[in-house]
Write a structure and sequence with these properties.
The chain has one domain. It is built from 5 helices and 4 strands; from the N terminus they run ααββββααα. It has helices at about 1-10, 15, 70-75, 80-95, 100-115; strands at about 20-25, 30-35, 45-55, 60-70. It has a 4-stranded antiparallel sheet. Helix 4 (about 80-95) crosses helix 5. About 15% of the residues are buried. Mean pLDDT is about 80; it is low at about 1-10.
Length: about 120
């Protein structure tokens, strides 16, 4: 089941594409992925996933976004983007799907350092 949860990450190769930003602390069996900003020290996004299987055997991956940011960033976030990030990520998942949502999130966090 853990491998199923990471199959999207392995297919998209996010850890290989963005080695400075994407970290799977426990390798392929890691239950979460950390995305770090090189340009904003202390700013991290953590994607946590769980796999749910219903009584009919249907598999439902559940992904959640957690934020880890310096207190000063929270104080300066007048639009509450950090506070609303988990809900916005859920919306993004529904619109784009898992792979594209992860790619979009990583690219947005890495935009400054890659270009």
């Amino acid at each position: 089941i853990e491998a199923l949860g990471l199959s999207v990450l392995q297919r998209s190769g996010d850890e290989e594409k963005y080695p400075d930003a994407v970290h799977l602390s426990e390798g392929p069996s890691s239950p979460f992925m950390v995305i770090r900003s090189a340009s904003q020290p202390g700013f991290e996004l953590v994607i946590v996933w769980r796999i749910q299987i219903d009584e009919d055997g249907k598999v439902f991956p559940k992904l959640d976004l957690l934020t880890k940011v310096p207190q000063r960033a929270l104080e300066l976030d007048k639009n509450r983007a950090i506070e609303t990030a988990p809900l916005s990520f859920r919306t993004l998942l529904g619109v784009l799907g898992i792979e594209a949502a992860l790619e979009s999130l990583i690219k947005s966090l890495c935009a400054e350092q890659n270009g």
